Structure of 2-oxoadipate dioxygenase/decarboxylase:
Amino acid sequence: MISQWRLRAAFARRLSAMYGREVPAYTTLVDVSREVNEDVLRDRGADAERLGSIGRVTAERHGAVRVGTPAELQQVARVFGALGMHPVGFYDLREAAASAVPVVSTAFRPVDGEELARNPFRVFTSLLTPADPRFFDPELRARLETFLAGRELFPPELLALADRAEAEGELPDDAAERFLQLAVAAFELSTQPIDRVWYETLEKVSAVAADIGGVRSTHVNHLTPRVLDIDELYRRMTARGIEMIDAIQGPPGGRGPAVLLRQTSFRALAEPRTMREPDGQVREGALRVRFGEVEARGIALTRAGRERYDTLLAGVDERLAHDPDADRPSVARTLWADLMPGTEHELAAQGLAYFTYRPAPERPRDGAHPPTALADLLATGWLRAEPIVYEDFLPRSAAGIFQSNLTDRGRRDDDQTATAYDSTWLSGALDRDVLDPYTLYDAQQRRSLEAAAEELGIAVP
Ligand code: OOG
Ligand code: NI
């Protein structure tokens, strides 16, 4: 029998092997990431593993996939459900001014601490929004919906195996093998001819709309390794002549503990794709839709901590609007130093980031009574705090990642009124609850505090 987490780990490994064959630059990225991680481990020792064991980090990937309809989204959710991955978080990529991509997204990932430690594979999953009139007029919407209704992304045999794995939590060896083959194949780049005129019609709205709705199958858009020092990775990739986007997205690095998520990417080369012309002729064309991305993960922020990050983004934008020649990274570093404390201890004491807490082995043993406030329990050495890793994504960075891949801004008609989509709508479309990331981190922190309080014989701080 193969358990869900082993299926998940095997799926991530096989998808990685397949994507490496499809996009050779990805293999370079994985190699350079591994080198950087080994160097960081050597330089920093145990400290390097504070946000995950080197085993976890080396195997860690996130994928990105894009689907066209709620029915397709429900099916992909069954495939990921088989792997113990649940929809977490809602991201609306239609609003980001710079990108205006007609999708809303969630991320499928393990939610339980132990499952995450075994293998944290996650997939950023985007759903096209044909009903948004700012992007699609009624005629194009109708054509698009008809096209999407006529395709099959996941064969029934795959979905039946997925349901069984989800219900039973495991699969017998043979069924597991079959499931993995079919699941990986479902995300392979298709060699079927693409209707060039239809593809280009959608491309005028958005390259992402064409990538989703212009073809009869789906594919991995990118697969992202995790690196322990993203600034160093950026330098090494650039030194190898790979042209990265001009920035690392997310909070500035350097000072204090790493928080949330920092990402950067590069455009992959054009890939050969078969095109069908209006006269029926088939010829070799090329499309450039996939890319490479890498990320560094930090500590999960509470809502209060996250507000400070959003304040940073707004502050940097404002400063750049007044002074377009200012250096964005240094503006961000300066503002960030004012907004965020520079130690884990302060992040914990001020309730800005999530930690698991346990009684310190070296706590006072002289019969003294522990203090009641969390900050005091930490300061006086009663409790120890271990950071909780941020397992999710950032909408602004995601918009930047989408954007890095587009040569053309696409088209959004702001005279039309947006269709409302939110987390509740997405839960309905999925027929599964979209989980709230803060609730998950809160619960993990709370459980640890309750256990620690019980051991110390005090009220939960
Ligand atoms: C997803 C872009 C977002 C990330 O890491 O923020 C993303 C896509 O291009 O489909 O993957
Ligand atoms: Ni990504």
Remarks:
- Residues 2-299+391-430 form a domain with the 2,3-Dihydroxybiphenyl 1,2-Dioxygenase; domain 1 fold (CATH 3.10.180.80).
- The first strand starts at residue 2 and ends at 3.
- The chain has a mean pLDDT of 93.
- The chain has 18 helices and 14 strands.
